[in-house]
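Example record

The entry below shows one chain as it appears in the dataset: sequence first, then structure tokens.
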Amino acid sequence: MRFEMRFAAVLVGAALLAGCTSANEGQWNTAQAAMQGNPAFKREVMADCVKQVGSRQSKDRQAVAKLMNVSVARVPSAFCSRFFNAWASGRLTYRDFQGIHSQTADNSRFVRILQGRE
């Protein structure tokens, strides 16, 4: 039980680091289409993400670093790159994203994406 709560906290922390926790499905799909059709827009969104993630508390970045198997220094760029590339390509779906907020959902795809394995 203790591991599950800690793991859920890491996943929620990772979602919060993404900075898009309030998107509805229409907004998710619209942003996905925009990133697919405009590489400059995608780079801008990712650059903003890197700034946001870099400004998060050290303990949050440390937890995500453990999940992602990267150094704490690489968390901002690795997280944003993996997250937004998966979103833009459709490998990360809105349903997957919604599952991040559930302690009972299967978040294995999100974990594999963050670890660079999918």
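Notes for this example: DSSP finds seven helices and no strands in the chain. Confidence is low (pLDDT under 50) at residues 1-5.
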